[in-house]
Amino acid sequence: MSKKRVLGFLLARPLIAVVIAVLVVGVLVMVQTHKQTTPVTERTQHIGLSDAQQVQLGNQQYEKTLRQDRAAIISSGPQYAEVQRVAKRIEAVAGRDKPAFRWRVTLLRKNEANAYCLPGGKIVVYTGILPVTRNDAALATVLGHEVAHATAEHAAERIEREHLTKVAAAIIAGGVAFTPRQYVRVFALLGAADSLPFSRAQESEADHIGLVYMARAGYDPREAVAFWKRMRRASKGQEPPEFASDHPSDEHRIERIQQWLPEAERAYKPARAD
Ligand SMILES: [Zn+2]
Description:
Structural class: alpha+beta
Bound molecules: zinc ion
Strand content: 5-15%
């Protein structure tokens, strides 16, 4: 759905409903959210959930995942040791931005090349990513990106947007004889106009923050470029994993990472071998 079509649809509603929606959403943003800035990129954002609520939300999902995949949990061996070693250093860096988060990483035996971090700091890594990362620095690229989604509170931001979109949709649909079907349509229009560019912006922001995090953790940020090139080859013709999703193209991603490299290199202090 293009922005133009959404705008056309909204302007066809009685204008007053749109104006009221804008005012109400504006008031809700002021009353129900707190203003803060993202780490590294210093973008202003409005978040409704507290750090403690995000930890709670992430823990619930984490426990559910661990119950479901109990048989796949890996708790010893060289792959386990590598994931713990790299995560520990990335968590220490991210913890400076989010002291209230509770960090923990779990390695699951799954062929998929994927990893994710839940709100509040719980990380899950699949063994399928390790043949692509190949070394600690590239694993730090992945973990830096995932952990950045948590410290930049991307999930909370999306929840907030969805909530406000629902409020706006209800008011606009209500401005013309309200029916549930109308509401669903308005909600879908408002949501579609916003969600894809927004999630791309979050992915890009996670790349940027993650790059600086890996450098702060003592990993050479130039390894991120090599990793993304390997990732591009590995994911040819496959469904992109979480951290490769919603990107216009890998080429573009690598280009942008190269632009952030000087900033990351300033933050880079090689760590002692461990
Ligand atoms: Zn991501």
